[in-house]
Fold each of these.
Amino acid sequence: MDGELCFDAGSLEAASTDFGGLVRQPPAAVLRPGSAEDVAAMVRHCRARGMKVAGRGQGHSTNGQAQVASGLVVDLGTLDSVEIRDDDTAVVQSGVRWSTLVRASLARGLTPPAFTDYLELSIGGTLSAGGLGGQIGHHGTQVDNVIELQVVTGEGELTTCSPTVRPDLFRAVLGGLGQCAIITRATLALVPAPRSVRLYTLAAPSLAALTAQQARLIREGRFDYLVGQAHTPSPEGWSYMIEAAAYDGTAADDARLTGDLDHTAVEVQDLPYFDFLNRIAPMVEVFESMGEWRRPHPWFDSLLPASAVNSVVSETLATLKGGSIGASAVVLLYPVLTAKCATPLPVMPDEELAYLFSLLKTASPGADSAEEMVAANRRQYDATLAVGGRWYPIGSVPLTTDDWVRHFGSFWDEFKAARHRYDPDGILTPGQRVF
Ligand SMILES: Cc1cc2nc3c(=O)[nH]c(=O)nc-3n(C[C@H](O)[C@H](O)[C@H](O)COP(=O)(O)OP(=O)(O)OC[C@H]3O[C@@H](n4cnc5c(N)ncnc54)[C@H](O)[C@@H]3O)c2cc1C
């Protein structure tokens, strides 16, 4: 063994919780692997004894997804090597955080093309979910930018997969919630990095104005990055904000980029590229100092078809009283061009344009309780499905196996076949509760 197997109370406690703070399941042991071979050997060991196993990146799940009651948690943080290659690719072990990868690639003038909002998530963690962000209109999700994976299957086999080598495994692992293999290494595409970013924050006069303009802008590809938010209600009601960024943009671009947009106010900032990517870090520090970061986070994330976004979002927001979803709650509305998302997972609505609609809740004092929030998430999930929407499966929604079958839709048969082929004893990642 190159790494270590830990049984101490501190290691077990750390692996029995997550960012969500809703589920607590102590494992029997925690592996801090020194190599991918360690992971393979321990998966074989556990399989022979009927023990369950899950990989853990940064533990930023919200519903126990990386936990294994009385099983083995593989803390992938020790698989932390990064290599930036001359062919504009990065070869990274799965425990590396995106912040570490982008710092290394920027030293060579390169960057991964697609990011999540928060950079302190692991490569393996976001590739197991999908990885959606503001660059999706040009580059798809993070899983769309993976060239090759090294994985350990549920049989304990260390192998590689790609679009041409074991493509069934590749398709089932990317966005595959750890159900078929543990990712130990990824080869990722890199692109030339901008030096600076001109970021426009535009106040939209209404929800309809926000979604209509996002639709137009993402189809035109006018900005390099495009997202949006609804802000918690004031006496005047909810307010809406578009964030749009031009890489290496200057003041000379302002009129062309924003002159015809319907907005009531605009703020413009020039940021170094890394600071732009990392701009929620100061907000996280504030939430940490408020104690909000350690409170329960019953998150809900969905992908709504464009045809239903205004009705579902307005009906949902109308039910949320000020503060009911927490002192640090954030409501996201990101446009998604589904054709840019070429991998089968994460599952997308069946329309050319969709919106990520996320209710990032915190059970703060005075807000709804965590249990009430989880129950509301289930109702929101049903309302989402009823209009052809999909769950983005990173949050806290109680689902049955039948729900999962419906969630995966036409990909279910292929996904189930991959699970049976690569994890025949069903030992991997029970915290997702898919099988
Ligand atoms: C503050 C914050 C901001 C976020 N912003 C975004 C965003 O903008 N866009 C977005 O798409 N998501 C976002 N997320 C969600 C995030 O991408 C997922 O929850 C992701 O899975 C978390 O990564 P992690 O390293 O913490 O994974 P963990 O929580 O450790 O694990 C998540 C799941 O993946 C499995 N897993 C972990 N590593 C591996 C591996 N190497 N191989 C196989 N399975 C593995 C685990 O077993 C578990 O089931 C955000 C989450 C937080 C907390």
Amino acid sequence: MSESYPPAISRGSTVSITQQIYRGMREAILSGSLAPGARLSSWQDLASQLGVSRGTVKRAYDLLKDEQLIITRGATGTWVTSSPPSLQTDQVETNTQQPGMFYDFRARPQYFQGGIPAQDEFPLKAWFNAWRKAMTADLSRPMIQPDPRGLYALRQEIAGYLTLARGLSCHADRVFISSGFSSGLFIVLSAMGFHGQKVFVEDPGFPRTRQALRELAITPVPVPVDPFGICVSPNMMNGEAKLAIVTPGQQSPLGMPLAPDRRMDLLNWARQTDAWIIEDDYAGELQLTGRAIPALAGDDHDGRVFHVGSFSKTINPSLRMGYLVVPEHLIGRFSKFVAHLTPAGSLIAQQALQYFIAGGHYLRHLRRMKTLYLARKTLLVSTLREELPPSVRCEFEGGLSVRLFFPAGTDDVAIAERAQLAGFGALPISPWYQGPNPQSGLLLSITNVTERSVAARCRALLRIIQGGI
Ligand SMILES: Cc1ncc(COP(=O)(O)O)c(C=O)c1O
């Protein structure tokens, strides 16, 4: 073990012993003297080694855990994470074209970072067992050409899940396994031949979707969003675009569901103008209060809606797995397209996911996450409210984030960049807007907010905000 471990402590210092242990270990990890993946003493052992109370060491470990510098696996032990940042790479590179939109993929997750589930509450044992079973099945299977549409048993599980949990009753033949929302989007745009055309998108709306469209020479046409969701306006009836991409479950980034009359207006628009809808169901059942609003595709009786789901927010974005549900009359066209261009990925991963869902673990996990995320959001909102300056408005209804809105004209991108350098993954809101006069603010994801550090984190972030508004 390295020379700087265990950390030296000084009882006469004005810095608390917890802070001394935390800072010493943090430095040892960031400088590389505690190597990635190195096993650490348990906090109980380190406490007796240093002659301090167990609670003192546990608090230091908790701080390191919050920063994703160490991981603990119950009673089995504590390790340095396998890819901690070095002091040199601690600063996050930002993309100059879309500042704040992409993270440095080598960096650890940051506090308030969006798009990642809770790090500390995943059912690891059930997940591991599903993978072990999948590996065993794979070893006894002859090498085969897998079905490019995806493992049929997984497609059946997903169809069952959608029927039960999302009000979208569909046959497994309509389900295609993708590598997440982005690839589902690509498949629809390409198989339906939208290249070079115009497409309606929500304003504000997910910037990655607009970027994806531009990659295919598609022009995103913004349609305003009000408190009821996308405003299905007479303008949309002029046939300018034959596709709309929407987030009806929880509008991204504002969080509200699409109001019932708007759902009907949108479906009517598609029928009357011979157009199509892509439903981005990125958060699926993770609607935190009440029963989740059913999928729009469940109300589509004309075969006009493509339902695109993802396991990125519910399991892990690094799984790179999602699904696409196509209208029945298009099964043949999509089967041919994916067979030749975008076959489903790893069969072992698909099989593991199928075992996980079939064992009831997915639904159980989602139910637990709904409760956990609601508690985390409540905690964050109540903490923020104590310190929020009057010029900052806090919105928290719907979605997996809390939105902070700044006075008009505030440079939220600059604030987000400064926040990133201080370890915050909060995203600026203005890039979500396409039209003139974007709102200014920050999106704070609630998934990894924890009781022990939320107050200090909020204070630090609010200091950065106050320096920028
Ligand atoms: C609006 C929206 N759509 C889709 C996704 C998921 O994308 P993918 O499945 O490609 O990871 C996210 C994740 O952050 C999202 O916020």
